[in-house]
Write a structure and sequence with these properties.
Length: about 325
Amino acid sequence: MAGVSETILKLEGLTKVYSGPSGGVKALDGVDLEIRKGEIFALLGPNGAGKTTLIGAVCGLVRPSAGTITAFGHDLSRNWRAARARIGLVPQELSTDMFETVERAVAYSRGLFGHPPDKARIAEILQSLSLYEKRSSQIRELSGGMKRRVLIAKALAHEPELLFLDEPTAGVDVELRKGMWEQIAALRERGTTIILTTHYIEEAELMADRVGIIRGGHILMVDDKDAMMKRMGTTEAVIALTKPLTQLPGEIAKFPVTLSEDGTELCYRGGDGSGSGSEAVADLTKALIAAGVDYRGIDVHESSLEDIFVDLLSQEEGA
């Protein structure tokens, strides 16, 4: 993210081994990661990759087996309380008292971190999450989407500078998901640094400044989202030819294209996430016309972050 350089969270060699009847299971394996102030960082990975364990280690829910965690300049193994007071967590699970009212549940979370009562601040948080009208309702009476918003409100009650969102839109419908995206963007605008885990990779593509990919407890890649898209993205185009070709004309063979076995389709793959591939496809169609090759349709596909994510995991499986 341009203009952002201050590191507020640093993980070095973070390792977590869970003991079990058949031996130890290594959930995190020497993870190194730095989070910059003011960014939205998306941590992507399949189930069991170590995302929730990493969050739990930073938030004091999981005791690391090895490595160090430094947050806001504090070593969490020595000065956990000072750092944890500046960190918020929205967990995957709806872990709250379902018979408590919305307002009291959020106010209680504020008090847990030593903040004095502040009805005006609680009201502001509830209003920002469209929960104010439900402030006197018991949490059990709310819809699934509203319950998840209550979790965010509870996490924001002590005004954290770093906020973890672990699958924040899991189980909510598309309309509510879009509303949550808007709320997360608004949090960042107010200066909150956000670490987001999600199965909806479109969320990361839409919102994140940087992306990290984790698998088997290892960080495979961390990069600025736009740089990752440009470096690893491609343009794919399938051109349906009017008449089959037996071989490629010389001018066409200069492009990164292949001819289907029956000669009826021309397949292009090249460029990057910057749009250069689309320009090359336009040049290719001009070359086809100049060579007297007629076509009846073009299907163009630009790589998404999900395509890059799936390709990277596939490469790791085959390594």
